[in-house]
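Here is one record:
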Amino acid sequence: MISRLLFFLLFPTLCFSQTLTGIILDASTNKPLETVAVYFDNTTIGSTTDEEGRFSISYSDAIQSPLVISYLGYEKVIIEDYRTKSDITIKLKPTDVSLDEVLLDFDDELTRRQKLKLFRKEFLGSSKYGKSCKILNEKDIFLRYDKKRKTLFASADVPIIIKNKALQYEVSFDMIDFEAIYRYVNLKELDFALDRVAYSGTSYYKNLDKSDKRKTKRSREKVYKGSVQHFMRALFHKNLKEEGYEIYHKGFKVDEYKYFNIKEKDKTGLKEVSLKEKVSILYDKKDQSDINVFVDRFLLDAYGNYSAIRGVYFNGAMGSQRMGDTLPLDYGLNTKKETQN
């Protein structure tokens, strides 16, 4: 499973904050749009436009995600070069939200209820965190099962709203695509054996009322430890052992960096990582994962953001993580431990 599929541009890690202001207009009328969502992808940092269409949003060097402009009935805009700007004007174009008649009439021998059950399992996950999640607008999700390819597809014209009770987040997930591919299917018995699942989209996390409770903080920390996000940060700082990771190759424990080639990327603050051979990752002596890299190299920053995401795959404990097990990219970045080399 791929935990973060949307490719984003990585920037140098500096130590300052900036504020971006702007105005959002209707492209056809040039009138300001109110309550437009403006957020950094996969973070808790966001804002909305006022009655004049204006917004202001602050960010630090820790935020590497694209800026997302999203409004119902209009095409979404993603901005990656916002660091070169201080004030922007965005004109949103209306979208054609008419439904595909072929999709609506498609007969795939599964009821909508059955497809929703499969979708929930592979999108939210089956952990206690995934099971605590509830999708608040399931009626907006379009589902199709391809019998020949043994694949479940999902899409939505509006963001999927997820309430994660265990982690106390409300997540707005604007889905780009979703597919769950099964290696074995018995439609009569409704028996599905998953091969792999992948989904992509932009997301905005909102803390719920009980997010500051001690129990919630413990749950979030438990989810974070041993996650892809945690592993990538430890890989960057070369403190895998200190963070509880062991690396194995063909069943034998090896030096943590024998098969990872990590070097500085010019003066950008990024590191370039390549993997010589497939290795296994053991966290806390009990949670095992495999990492497979199908690109020559990928870029990594101090916060665990990495590029070439479609070329980096995890199986096992890390590969089983779903939306219900995820944290925003800015989780823990207010502590020196996570942001210093």
